Amino acid sequence: MSAISAYCRFLGKEIYGYDAVRTNESAKLEKHAVIKYYSTPDSVKGMDLVIYTNAISEENFEYRAAKKLKIPTLSRANFLGYVAWKHRKSIAVSGTHGKSTTTAYLAKIFDYAGKNPTVFCGASLRDYLGGAIFGGRELAIFEACEYMDSFLEFKPSVGCILNIEYDHPDYFANEDALLESFSRFLESSERVVVNIDCPNVKKLLERKNHPRLTTFSLKSRNADYFGEVKKNSFICYCKGKMMFEASLKARGVHFVYDAMCAASVALSEGVSSGVVASALSDALGVSRRLEFIKKTDTGAQIFEDYAHHPTEIKATISALLEMGYKRICCVFQPHTFSRTRYVFDTKYDIFDGCESVYILPTYAARETVDLGADSRELAKKCGATFSPSLCALCNELKASPYDCIVFMGAGDIGCFKKYF
Questions:
Q1: What's the CA gap between 57 and 178, in Å, rounded?
Q2: DSSP secondary structure letter of residue 82
Q3: CA 395 to CA 399: how far, in whole Å?
Q4: What is the pLDDT of residues 228-275, one digit of tens each?
Q5: Residues facing 330 on adjacent strands
Q6: 165 shares a domain with 111
Q7: What span, in angstroms and rounded, lies between the C-alpha atoms of 271 and 190?
Q8: Are residues 305 and 271 part of one domain?
Q9: CATH of the domain at 323
Q10: Do residues 409 and 266 both lie within one domain?
Q11: How many whole angstroms separate alpha carbon 156 and alpha carbon 376?
Q12: What single DSSP character describes residue 286?
């Protein structure tokens, strides 16, 4: 939403907005928009258009006021679909994990290739200091989120599917419902680039093939693009021919999958292997993805990661172990009660490799407490310690003996920085 606001301002529009609380992102928007953190009778009066996120309910005051006043309304996905349609070519990045990082890699590659892309990312692009790039009308690159079928608003030239795992239980009743949505996304794309190492992607392709399909893999040399992971780099092959070798700034095999997806798209679009290799080696990625924050007085390295799904948590811890950390402390804030109940169900080995784990109160986001499990229950099942106060915990960790402390979660866990 912040990227959309900045884009509309770039087009010369007057921007007004509402958010429930003042965050770092909304504070940045105050430089070019009038942002309110409370509802008033005239919140949307006089607006030409209201763009809303699907994270709000239909009971939201501003949304209801816009409907009552018959002001045109568009969801975030509706608007991005319109922006994509205004470009000659569009690349949509979907998947349960890795969308933001892959979008960032694509942005860097096509920037280096001189394509002047317009980019919308769900996280801050560290190479471009914001969530969006305002380029020309030739190419649009954007995340395509599956929540509430948002990605079905797009009809991309290239649709990427990084992986498919059950998530968003407040919308998708089960895994089959999720696969059906991805099947429709696949159908809506002119060309598709997919990760065939993912079991659910294989299941999807068994259900619905695509006439213009490009595959990538780190396990099968039969894929159109195969990645061979080395100690500090990876090699990309196409049909057995070596295309390039690149070293990513981020550690962890999950980042290699993101890079392979971006490379597969770019190479099949005619970008030279040299440009792809240079861009991937230089790319900083996005904020809050195993991002180093600082070193404490006791020598502990502090990292922040957006991981909020079991697979993401395990990937982050695996990367830290790969980086050589022996005494890892994880501070995790669950995101939404429904995810805590249904997605974490039976998956309690996710923190293996950590010396200590602390779990904070669940970040409710769009939900209420009665929708799912509490973080106390999760902490008990994981053998972790429940911590009711981020402030008190951070003060305790300042004198900790760990060599690495990682703060994970998609809620307001980022506030930890002010305590160090």
A1: 21
A2: H
A3: 8
A4: 999 889 999 999 999 999 999 999 999 999 999 999 999 999 999 999
A5: 357, 406
A6: yes
A7: 19
A8: no
A9: 3.90.190.20
A10: no
A11: 42
A12: B
